[in-house]
Design a protein that fits this description.
By secondary structure, the protein is an alpha+beta fold. It has helices spanning 7-31, 106-114, 171-179; strands spanning 46-47, 56-60, 65-69, 74-75, 87-89, 93-99, 117-121, 124-128, 132-133, 139-145, 157-163, 183-184.
Amino acid sequence: MNRKISFPIAIIIILICAVFVAGLAIWCYLCTPKIEIPEFKLAEKTLSAVDTTGWKTYRNEEYGFEIKYPPKYRVATETATDVAPAIKADSYAQIIFRDFTGDYTKQEIENIKKNSEKIKIGTLEAFKSDLGGNMDGGVELSIAFFDRPKAEERMYFNILFCTLQPGKEEELGTFYKMLSTFRFLE
């Protein structure tokens, strides 16, 4: 037996499904927590040194850099990155050092420069990405260096700051203070 559904009944079924799908979409939109990323602006395009009394210094001889960090941060021994151990504040913020030298084409590097804000860290030229969200619900910010004093070849050295949960965006201020102490070794 071949039963056909009448046209008006088919329309009603389609409308019920459409209302259900629309209601589900509205419910998801209204019930999903919104993460607001506050806008952080550097007061100046140059990061100058800050008072680092009581801070420790992380020094990496192999890649030739050092950075100071406050007591609430520590050098993480349980994870490794492309260059050095991360510097972490408990489980909610970390700074990762990565060496991408040779991994990007000249054009890709020019695109990064074009889409980033040029800043100075002491005498070093760097490029700051826009503040963005990450998969953990926190925020992240990337600082890229493409030249190194007295380097024989071009490089791409990256420092990534990220919070690992929402609500820790205030750590960005601490990151900028730490970043002001970053330097390549001579």
